[in-house]
């Protein structure tokens, strides 16, 4: 089947739209017509080929309509509306424990650019293979071949163009608060970096009734939005942030969530903890940081990494959609839409912080 896809090739400043050939779905797979797809920092970082092979079709925040089913697919029908999230094997201990983001095969299935058997679903106009199955979807395209475990069925009355970002950035932020840290009523938490992940976490903290929600960022405009979405306090990033947080709370916060990869910020996220507090992060610090970390863990403090918010997309995404319906989780406030052929501009806007969550409009629902 001939489709349009944004292909990442070596040396290109951004993915470029090409006509490519898409294979038919195999057993356990579906073909989904993409309606909209979010652009995530991970897409931007992977475009040069950091972990994934090239040429490749990226995209991992897709939402669309099921067009065809491979053999053995259960629970879906042609015409269903779906959101695509990360994929997993379904058989390892983490998957069987309902924690698919920690699947034993998460790395090859996410960044390998092919099925586990080494095959790909895409070829370019010259018949040369293109890498596919990025995060189980490669949804920078008009259509995608999606493993059954990657898709989450959603109600047809919810605007599909809003839903793609739920599957990565939003679920990571909200899940980190609700599922991983289990922040509760009256708790205190500070967020370092309030882009798409951080703002989703701010909304989740308000949702669960946290008493003090501190947002830290370098951009004043993002702090303004964080306050509108639930932050009780906002601070411009700087050397005195730890002292300011301790002054606000009197003892430090019970939790921090760091969405940046800056070593200095990782240090601050630990230093502002109260005794027995937990510092969580979703992006590893760049460079050598660990030797300075260990003295900070005295007093029962803990450090933990989080993948995908610890959430199972099939059960957690419908909850977030319900919260949105109730007006309690307005994640749509972060979204700005672009035409599919504006993918280069969307990438540039993400890199320079001009847009929190770009969504590419690929087709009509």
UniProtKB/TrEMBL annotation:
Cited PANTHER family: ALCOHOL DEHYDROGENASE (PTHR43880), ALCOHOL DEHYDROGENASE CLASS-3 (PTHR43880:SF12)
Which is a GO BP term held by this UniProt record? Answer: formaldehyde catabolic process
| Family affiliation | Belongs to the zinc-containing alcohol dehydrogenase family.
- Write out the GO cellular component annotations: cytosol
UniProt-listed Pfam families: ADH_N, ADH_zinc_N
Keyword terms of this UniProt record: Metal-binding, NAD, Oxidoreductase, Zinc
Q: What is this protein called?
A: NAD(P)-dependent alcohol dehydrogenase
Please list the cofactors this protein needs. Zn(2+)
GO MF terms, alphabetically ordered: S-(hydroxymethyl)glutathione dehydrogenase [NAD(P)+] activity; zinc ion binding
Q: In this protein, which residues make up the domain named Enoyl reductase (ER)?
A: 11-360
